[in-house]
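Incident log, entry 3
Record: TfuA domain-containing protein (256 residues)
Problem: checksum mismatch between cached and fresh output.
Input:
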Amino acid sequence: MADESKMGPILVFLGPTLRLAEAAPVLDAIYLQPAAQGDILLSAHAFRPRAMILIDGQFEDRPAVRHKEILWAMAQGIVVIGAASMGALRAAELNEFGMIGVGLIYRWYRRWRLAPDDAVAVHSGPAELGFLPLTDALVDLRRTFSTLARRRFLTAAERDLLTTMARNTNFRERRLEAILRTAGWREERLKELRKEIVGQKKLDALLALRSAPTLLLQANTGPRVSNAWVATNTFVRDLEASGIDSNLVNTYKLNP
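Fresh output:
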């Protein structure tokens, strides 16, 4: 068996979905900020990784991570895994090209291709505060309301009402307490239900980290999907507009 220590590190793009202190003990990896356009390309050149795990991504202040750069990374022989948030979205979109998806949210996006992207979006604090989540993701709220209904904490009608209200709330303002207040719930019940929230994004992220060693072994023994990468003028122009040297797409040593 090859010595993994000589094969490059695993990179994890992580932000509001999971605290670094919770992630680091699960998987020995290099943890980076949520990925935006160009970060896959730049981090590949900086670290020469054997794998990348995309969990969180940026999408407001910077353009979102592009499908093309993920395809480029896989064409270099880098195993790319996605889960929980932006990673689940991209994995569902690129599964047929070789990106590996993990978790319930990934499977949800694969099943419902037109599901809204903002279902995993949260408003978060700055990098200096570790991208602390300030709102709740719609996928977490939906799982919470469904779980509470199964446990008879909510009626089916209450579940449906709260789910609709959450769906109609902008992700920057989507918080469990705010939705319950608008629905007329008493303040004393808010703290009680906050303790019951299902953090599906967090669960999927942890599953991806725990599963990574096994997934890498399977990927390294299976067929590679590396013929999907084709440079386009639009992609090159986007990189250059972001101040990234587009020559980087041609200077990485392709794996056989």
